[in-house]
Amino acid sequence: MTTSVRGDQLARLLGRWHALPGRRRSPDYAALAGAVRGLLSDGRLALGVRLPAERELAEALAISRTTVSAAYRALRETGHLASRRGAGSWTTLPNGHRVASSGLWTPEDDLDMIDLGCAASAAPVEIVPAARAAADDLPRYLGSAGYHPTGLPELRAAVADGYTARGVPTSPEQILITSGTQQALDLVLRLSVPVGAPVLVETPTYPNALAALAARRARISTHGLDIEDGWDGEMLLGALRQIKPRMTYVIPEFHNPTGHLMPTELRERLVATAHSTGADLIVDESFVDLPLDDPAMPPPVAVFDRHSRVTSIGGMSKAYWGGLRIGWVRASAPLVQRLAAIRVGVDMASPVLEQLVAVHLLRNADEIVAARRAQLRFRRATLVAALREQLPEWRFVVPGGGVTLWAELDGPISSALSRAAEDVGVRLAPGPRFGLDGTLERFLRLPFTLPADDLAEAVRRIASVRHDLDHAARPAWRTPVVIT
């Protein structure tokens, strides 16, 4: 069934669609069409969505129907809109384009593209010997059906030992192995968040978490993070008391995308306030293994949990490799069993061979993670130096860990800059992808997971198109080239 978007909803997504630098000399219809293409390019407007009727959108935007008609016609000409008389118009991609792994649409032939839309590293060299060792272990499991909904016992034990070493005594029965951290989040939401339930999230936050919450049709409220100081404890706890959400989702370790680290005192108060308001906490620990400056980390949020309010999720995508789809949930043993029962209706179990690879990698965790940290330190330094040289007017705090830097730009140009950067071979994830309703146009997430030379070249290209946004004689929206 085709989904649809109402006029008022699309108007909120479009935001200040006619107010970016240089647009005043563009016809309104061209600016509107470009803004819709921008929503498609950064993933805030999905493919196959029926757009509102021309009259409805015109009323929502307080513009003439003629302008909307011309914009829709322009979108049909570039292949971003398909229309059928009596059926309406819905979003599409131009021929020769696809949806990339980052969720953005892109030309099929993009070998020269520097992808800063994905905050993940290439595999460590240890992945091949670990896979060979796992293959040698596989015969032990071939006599069974191969379905382990809660995960292989030896992997559950290894993950539990990791939590115990961090100060949270954990048994294997408290661990559920999943196909990545995203599935861990999805399963917890399926179990704990009824349709229409109120939830509280940070803003900005991880885009796929917002997508998972939207799929549950949750009522999302947000708590804003400051670019310099991160969480405002009083405002966060006040929001918990006022909203009384069914669930609160936080990323306390090197927050994605800002890189902030939640202080110990706020972690303790957060758990206590969640208990007093009846809210459960989902704590995303995807980046917990990646402190880059001070190795001393605050205790896990679960240390302060006395009432089974905290469900921790994590995985191997950031410190190890995203292609190894191994994640986990740490919760009470009864909750793990309920999650496993739901999981059987989704994908039965994680692949046995991948779990065995994970076991071998975790046995060498100290060596692998230390090398990853050293690699990220060097790449972070390269990115910071390039930004300070090429774009000194941008403001940011150097993160103490994780893999992303959150930059405040010199204007509300994030989406426009991302579209322009794609023309010079750099894919970006603009600020609005990390928030609701088209906000965060002054911000851009820049991961430092690519090789240093690629990062320096990407910043050079971004700086060149940033200059062009202000100095182009005639502003023009990017029309993707159809690859044939």
Index terms:
484 residues, alpha/beta, seven-stranded mixed β-sheet, four-stranded antiparallel β-sheet, 15 helices, 17 strands, disordered C terminus
Describe what you observe in this structure.
The protein has 484 residues and is an alpha/beta fold. The chain contains 15 helices and 17 strands. The chain has a seven-stranded mixed sheet with strand order 6-12-11-10-9-7-8, with helices on both faces. A four-stranded antiparallel sheet has the order 13-14-17-16. It has a two-stranded antiparallel ribbon with strand order 1-2. Strand 13 and strand 14 form a beta hairpin. The chain is globular, with a radius of gyration of 23 Å. The C terminus is likely disordered.
List the helices and strands and how they pair.
Layout: H1 7-14, H2 28-41, H3 54-61, H4 65-77, E1 81-84, E2 88-91, E3 97-99, E4 105-107, E5 114-115, H5 127-137, H6 153-165, E6 175-178, H7 181-192, E7 198-203, H8 207-215, E8 219-224, H9 233-243, E9 247-250, H10 264-277, E10 280-284, E11 310-315, E12 327-330, H11 333-344, H12 352-363, H13 365-390, E13 395-396, E14 404-408, H14 414-423, E15 426-427, E16 429-430, E17 443-447, H15 452-471
Parallel strand pairs: 5-15, 7-8, 7-9, 9-10, 10-11
Antiparallel strand pairs: 1-2, 3-4, 6-12, 11-12, 13-14, 14-17, 16-17
Helix pairs in contact: 1-3, 2-4, 3-4, 5-12, 6-12, 7-8, 7-11, 9-10, 13-15, 14-15
Radius of gyration, CA atoms, in whole angstroms: 23 Å
Strand order of the largest sheet: 6-12-11-10-9-7-8
Strand tally? 17
| Largest pleated sheet | 7 strands, mixed
Structural class: alpha/beta
Strand content: 5-15%
What is the percent of helical residues?
A: 25-40%
Stretches where pLDDT is under 50 for at least 5 consecutive residues are 473-484
Principal-axes shape call: globular
Task: Quote the average pLDDT.
Answer: 90
Terminal-residue CA separation: 31 Å
The number of helical segments is 15
